[in-house]
Amino acid sequence: MDEAGEKITLRQMQIFLAAVESRSFNRAAEKLSLSPPAVSMQMSRLAEALGATLFVKDGRSVQPTQTATALVPYAERLAETLREAVHVVEQMQGRLDNQVRVAMVSTARNFGPQLVQQFLRQRPAAQVEISIANRDGVIAQLQEDRADLALMGRPPRRIEVTAHQFAKHPYVLISNPEHPLTRFRRIRRADLVMHRFLVRESGSGTRMVHEHFFREAGLPLPPAQEMDSNANIKQAVMANMGLAFLSAHTIALERQAGKLSVLSVDGMPQLRDWFVVYPRRKTLGPAAREFRDFVTTDGPAFMRQFFGEDYGAE
Questions:
Q1: Which pTM was predicted?
Q2: pLDDT in tens, 9-65
Q3: Residue 71 has pLDDT above 50, yes or no
Q4: Rounded to an integer, what distance in angstroms lies between the CA atom of residue 230 and that of residue 87?
Q5: Residues 92-110: pLDDT tens digits?
Q6: Are residues 140 and 214 in the same domain?
Q7: How many independent structural domains does the chain possess?
Q8: What single Pfam family name could you report for this chain, choosing any that match (predicted)?
């Protein structure tokens, strides 16, 4: 290694990658729990060691130079090698044997924690970390190795995964119990176009069910207001602000309390599937493998018992 290479540290490369990503020394410092002067000093030392300018100021931001852009893949390779080395050491020491990180989409919060607890009764030594996020957030956790497995509906396409189906996932159309449509024994799809709906963000499972329901019949999409969570949608429907397609697994308590009604509509309920998903190239640790096997073997019976034999369908 030449003299310049001996002066460069892995920490400098980590700071460099954070600065390139955020285009700001201040934001890079915040991300790495450093002070902005410390980031600036380390980037100056790195530039000096390389004998090249890495960043140019652009107002309050910094822009990577052509040299910096060329350096990025090598810095990423170094950072990934370090992560892999640490991972191997931790595995050799047995620290990861009992750890499993489970991400779940927001709809799965209605049964996911209970499913995890059932697993822990069988494997009390396991250390399970759970996180709940929207679909994009869960996919990002899998992609960035911040989760070992995920409980979700339709498996992602932008990363290669192995997916095991373990339960049916019914979607239903809900309304306030006082809504005029509750008086009808069967409702045609065309009768719904004039009514106001509440929907999740584009790309979510419930949004896809909503759009497919009307487009499959060649009908225009009805007027709709977008909301950022199923909980907010439920509250709005209970306030009689509109109709909504939601997972039957998210409304069991509200139905029992008489706060929500499931409408009898042609083409509903629509059955999807629940999957336990993990990156195809990922080597699961012992606890993660046991959790995967538990979900695929015991998950179907758990879901039937938890939600009832009809899975919430009318």
A1: 0.61
A2: 889 999 999 999 999 999 999 999 999 999 999 999 999 999 999 999 988 899 999
A3: yes
A4: 37
A5: 666 668 889 999 998 899 8
A6: no
A7: 3
A8: LysR_substrate
Is beta strand 55-58 parallel, antiparallel or unpaired with respect to 61-64? Answer: antiparallel
> Domain residues for 198?
169-272
Domain co-membership, 289 together with 199: no
In this structure, are 291 and 266 located in the same domain? no
Q: Is the peptide bond before 269 cis (omega within 30 degrees of 0)?
A: yes
Are 143 and 182 in a shared domain?
no
List the CATH number of the domain containing 149: 3.40.190.10
Six-digit token string for 23: 């285009």
Instruction: State whether 24 and 42 are in the same domain.
Output: yes
Note whether residue 77 is domain-resident.
Answer: yes
